[in-house]
């Protein structure tokens, strides 16, 4: 075949693939989208991981054009590479955004986004129910002169009451950890839209498969790829997705250098240059590939984890040695109706308080299948006594504010066979 004919054939095949995937389901798109976007070489099904830090251009003009942002391309792998592009394209596509950036970890994504978009004198409204390390970073933001108000985001009125003249953004998690409070997602989104605030949503607990971030008007999705996306506890990664819903023209914190770009790109480009490039928390090619492979089974794993979690929650709810169960899928959960509105399933995280007559550590040591480990979103079921570990550093008062008791165990439910999980709990509680 001549090169020209081959070229036409390839373009046809790519266009055809795009048409084919257009109206297909989540799983179909997930496992075929990489072929569509990356044209892997030599028939390779996986995008090859490329460890090159540098990129050579025989015509120096090409390198200059990349540096000046006139054409897309790679110059140095701290900012971009083909493996990273492949993962970012998958994530942008399944989250329904206009662009995304990947980072070395969820915390790198979250902290970089704050530091790239906020400056001294700005005000941030943050949920009182956030991941422990995100909560810990509030202190750092304050030391840099960024004001932070911490509010109960299960009611939009609390967010509205905290808005000030210098408020720039609202930050919350969809389902919070460990007590599983569900944020007032859509009303807060509408408030942010009306007040022109950046609405940052950490959807680590509820990836695209079970949650439509655009339906609640999120501006930026931030979070961890380490959890459900990668799914097997073998790689760290973080993500920022721009949903395209926020009008960056109205954001006062866009620096001069980025004002010349098309409006839709301004926010993400500032996070990329001032954050990812300057602060350097980049993902490696190998990690990107490991996450991409894990993601292929995202929906299968979520279905199974959510299903197992609901059954286990229902079992624990009626057990006399359990004082309380926190799971949005239970009718008794205070935000059960909201959870049903926003999520197609209720997630794989549940927590419970043991009856005070049961010794927490002794009970945990009796569980045979369940791993005593921090982390969540794994294929295996994990348990951790949160007051003594993740939330130890913040002290009793903050824990009480967050609804965390000393006898609380947080579970991340895996994909094991449910009868085996139920039997493990039955014997440990006997
Ligand atoms: C784990 C987690 C993070 C941090 O992600 P890492 O990849 O561990 O850095 C952020 N937000 C939430 C809700 C998390 O569960």
Tell me what the structure shows.
It is a single chain. By secondary structure, the chain is of the alpha/beta class. The protein has 2 domains: 3-295, 3-Layer(aba) Sandwich (Aspartate Aminotransferase, domain 2); 298-429, Aspartate Aminotransferase, domain 1 (Alpha-Beta Complex), CATH 3.90.1150. It contains 16 helices and 12 strands. A 7-stranded mixed sheet has the order 1-7-6-5-4-2-3, sandwiched between helices. Helix 8 (185-195) links the parallel strand 4 and strand 5 (198-202). Helix 4 (82-95) packs parallel to helix 11, helix 5 runs parallel beside helix 6 and helix 5 packs across helix 10 (263-279). The relative contact order is 0.12. The mean pLDDT is 92. Bound molecules: pyridoxal-5'-phosphate.
Topology, pairings included?
Layout: H1 3-22, H2 26-38, H3 60-67, H4 82-95, E1 99-103, H5 106-117, E2 123-127, H6 132-143, E3 147-151, H7 156-162, E4 167-173, H8 185-195, E5 198-202, E6 220-224, E7 238-242, H9 256-259, H10 263-279, H11 285-295, H12 298-317, E8 322-326, H13 336-342, E9 349-354, H14 360-366, E10 371-372, E11 382-385, H15 395-401, E12 408-412, H16 418-429
Parallel strand pairs: 2-3, 2-4, 4-5, 5-6, 10-11
Antiparallel strand pairs: 1-7, 6-7, 8-9, 9-12, 11-12
The structure holds pyridoxal-5'-phosphate.
Give a brief outline of the structure.
This is O-acetylhomoserine sulfhydrylase. Pfam families: Cys_Met_Meta_PP (PF01053). Helix 6 links the parallel strand 2 and strand 3.
